[in-house]
Amino acid sequence: METAFAAESEQRTPELLWPTALRVILKPGVGDMFSGRKALATGLLVLLAGCGGGSQPPAESPGESTLPDTIAEPSIEPTEPESTQPAQPKPSLDLASAPIGGNVEANGIFRCAEVNWLGRSPIPAGTTIVTGPPHVEPGGVFELDQRGCPADARPCPDVQWVRSNFQPCFVGARQVAAGTEDIALIMPIHATCNTEADCRSLAGDQRGSQIGFTPGDVPSASPSG
Fold first, then answer.
1. Which of 4, 19, 48, 124 is the S-S candidate for 198 at Cβ 3.0 to 4.6 Å?
2. Cα–Cα distance between 92 and 39 in angstroms, integer?
3. Is 50 exceeded by the pLDDT of residue 92?
4. How does residue 218 score in pLDDT terms, banded at 50, 70 and 90?
5. How many Cβ atoms from other residues are within 10 Å of residue 167's Cβ?
6. Is the dihedral of CA 194, 199, 203, 208 positive or negative?
7. What is the mean pLDDT of residues 88-112?
8. Residue 32, pLDDT above cutoff 90
């Protein structure tokens, strides 16, 4: 009951103060104009004090902050491309006289040799053999002449032999002088391998060329008369 009466009294306080303020402002007296103005100001202060009731929003404590929370994102480290290592050269092998063999076809003074690889067979995986320019030893009896072979026969220089693609090549020759012994066909090769062991075993048991040109009769020139 006392709580309700107090609340009602608080709400009626401004209404009770109005007559008092008016009596103060309107009360006649012998004071001069300054006294009347002072009384008016005093009455207004009383009214404002009575009407100033009501709840005020609580002041923000110094420790509280109205700024929104921020979440720090993880820093992204710059990524640098990995340094590329220089390519390591593959093991290689050079043979001045490759292990080759094949049949030789004779047609008058012309010869055509079919050249096959007689080294390690099959050729190791990852190994490439490149044929070089052939020649004959000793010289003077035969000279290389590709006309001794068919037109569609593949000549031997710069031929590549690999495990999955091996085809013979052909070397033509022409007899230019008389002779009694076979003339060897020599052909160098350059090979690159996956391993040094592959290169070392590439020649196999066969050493050097097994191809020779056998001399025949050389037509003599007709005597001049």
1. 124
2. 119
3. yes
4. confident
5. 9
6. positive
7. 95
8. no
